[in-house]
Amino acid sequence: MEGVDHLAFERNKAQFDVDEMKIVWAGSREDFELSDRISRLVASDPVFRKDDRAALGRKELFKNTLRKAAHAWKRVIELRLSGEFSALEPEAYKLRAFVDQPAFTDLHWGMFVPAIQGQGTDEQQQKWLPLAYRMQIIGCYAQTELGHGSNVQGLETTATFDPKTDEFVIHSPTLTSSKWWPGGLGKVSTHAVVYARLIIDGQDYGVHGFIVQLRSLDDHLPLPGITIGDIGMKFGNAAYNTMDNGVLTFDHVRIPRNQMLMRVSQVTREGKYVHSNVPRQLVYGTMVYVRQKIVADASVALSRAVCIATRYSAVRRQFGSHNGGLETQVIDYKTQQSRLFPLLASAYAFRFVGEWLLWLYTDVTERLKAKDFSTLPEAHACTAGLKSLTTTATADGIEECRKLCGGHGYLCSSGLPELFAVYVPACTYEGDNIVLLLQVARHLVKTVSQLSTGNKPVGTTAYMARLEQLLQYHSDVKKAEDWLKPNVVLEAFEARAARMCVACAQNLSKFSNPEEGFQELAADLVEAAVAHCQLIVVSNVYALSLLHKHLGDFISTGCIDPKQGSLANEQLRNLYSQVRPNAVALVDAYNYTDHYLGSILGRYDGNVYPKLYEEAWKDPLNDSIVPDGFKEYIQPLLKQQLRNARL
Ligand SMILES: CC(C)(COP(=O)(O)OP(=O)(O)OC[C@H]1O[C@@H](n2cnc3c(N)ncnc32)[C@H](O)[C@@H]1OP(=O)(O)O)[C@@H](O)C(=O)NCCC(=O)NCCSC(=O)/C=C/CCCCCCCCCCCCC(=O)O
Ligand SMILES: Cc1cc2nc3c(=O)[nH]c(=O)nc-3n(C[C@H](O)[C@H](O)[C@H](O)COP(=O)(O)OP(=O)(O)OC[C@H]3O[C@@H](n4cnc5c(N)ncnc54)[C@H](O)[C@@H]3O)c2cc1C
């Protein structure tokens, strides 16, 4: 019934202050109030309706996205939201709060602006950022090509310096050098940061970033030498098809020398290449920035799915009725809890590790300003590893939440299919997850190899300093509740990660060619990298569910024995019982509006069945009782079969 809270009985079970937890989840009271204000404004603004997307064709869907993005920008200005977030918070993520679907603004604010901020000189920032901030130009991040994405050093686009005209000539020498995938490129962006091989006097200096105008600011037509378009439909119906991922080729396009991003390296008027004594990897800085944002994003995406699945699991009843009484809520089944509650814990764990990663990123950014590069390897390993870990867990978690909702989870009106289709490319973009884990493995193996040189490991690898102790470690857990002690859990995870890493390093040492060994042992190295990244994220409930899931590692590395493993599982069940009365309150703390969730199963009021039934009739297929095509194709067949039967 309208207006009745069918989940009130669940909310009354909460054993904590939900309003306080809302502040914890948002990060601060100010952030809570601002996000609460925006989400309610968006929910009440008809321009931001989301329930029609499934029925729109690609062109209508895209046009609607442009309309939303423009309206969102106008609202950000009208509400004077600019600058209200922390200084580090570019406009992107305010707009994301309004538009809530992939759009060109993600790349303008999320990559084009950060690339200029991170790799542009002060003069270049003074020239280009005001244009970008006022959206007088719209930018994208054009790095990936048809032939290369993971291997950035394999990019083929060239930027050849012409000393006669003081210009770079940007060119696509091969089909595989076509820029391919950049979001916002296909139909909207006027400019791009283009990554190309810097060529001076025949010498190749590797990949650098260049600001290139793509389209006229008058008629939006591609400039001479530019061929540009959309790469076509992607996975899912609406999903990421609201984004114009594009293809771009250059036919000897000239740009002024001062449009090479020159904070890291410079080219003088005479054509001399100057590489200031900074790591060349700073050219990758934008990717590091977005990877840390993606970890925060993972907690948002996973919490949306968990919110839907938790509320629906409390509403859904199946079996268990005695003497005509109510059937059992599926959230009371231990199997449902063992699948759902670790995801609920993961959403919180990723939220908090995302805050820590933002601190790490901010710290390394400040250090770079002081030419202190000491924590750059740690920042790279942590952003790469946590981006990989959290996006894989979130993509798998959204799919698990769909399954936790049974058949109704497969309906678009559940919100889960769309959420999955929009989210899954996160395992690929900003770095394929396996490629990134191999980067972490390189960092770990290097750390182990340097232990003998007296190089004290710091940061997230500091536990490696206690290697001897960890290699002798065996858990002294005697009873289930011992697993509730944080240090007991932490030591088990440290020992597992250390032993898996040392085992890889020892096996690598058997190869005369280290690179050959690395390739041969890549699968083991990835597992060691995952163990290290999980150690970073570990928190009680999240940790024990991980320990149970990866019990084989813990037993095979000798950290714990089967009995201790079963005690951990027993403690896990006890924790599920403690979470159970608080489950609905824990997802209420995300403070998502029904509009933002876009899910009938996840409605705040739990009024699922009447709304599911009501929604079904809105489908265009129900516009007519007899569907188009029936009389044309099926009825003649039926009649013929009936005639045959009478003969
Ligand atoms: C790293 C590679 C794989 C290899 O690079 P290479 O140059 O070949 O180097 P190596 O030989 O491997 O290593 C040499 C040394 O360099 C070190 N290194 C490598 N990378 C880095 C780095 N980034 N920083 C520092 N150091 C680095 C390495 O460790 C070695 O050191 P050593 O010699 O051993 O000491 C590289 O090729 C690579 O990175 N490949 C991946 C390519 C990639 O990631 N492409 C991405 C393209 S852009 C893209 O995909 C965009 C997608 C759109 C995403 C849209 C997102 C929207 C926003 C989402 C979030 C919004 C949420 C908002 C939430 C909120 O409200 O806040
Ligand atoms: C939705 C979406 C949006 C995107 N937006 C942008 C954008 O805005 N700008 C941009 O520049 N790019 C963008 N990209 C491109 C994206 O960055 C690349 O697709 C990504 O970096 C993966 O590279 P790839 O496609 O070359 O994969 P590949 O590297 O070809 O991966 C294919 C397989 O090879 C494996 N593999 C590759 N190398 C190794 C190795 N050394 N060892 C072991 N296995 C390996 C991978 O694990 C994977 O299984 C986007 C992509 C998507 C899907």
From TrEMBL:
Cross-referenced InterPro entries: ACOX_C_alpha1 (IPR055060), Acyl-CoA_ox_N (IPR029320), Acyl-CoA_Oxase/DH_mid-dom_sf (IPR046373), Acyl-CoA_oxidase (IPR012258), Acyl-CoA_oxidase_C (IPR002655), AcylCo_DH-like_C (IPR036250), AcylCoA_DH/ox_N_sf (IPR037069), AcylCoA_DH/oxidase_NM_dom_sf (IPR009100)
Cellular component annotations (GO), alphabetically ordered: peroxisome
Residues annotated to bind FAD: 144, 183
Active site, UniProt feature: 430
Superkingdom of origin organism: Eukaryota
Cofactor: FAD
Key words of the record: FAD, Fatty acid metabolism, Flavoprotein, Lipid metabolism, Oxidoreductase, Peroxisome
UniProt family annotation: Belongs to the acyl-CoA oxidase family.
Name recorded for this polypeptide: Acyl-coenzyme A oxidase
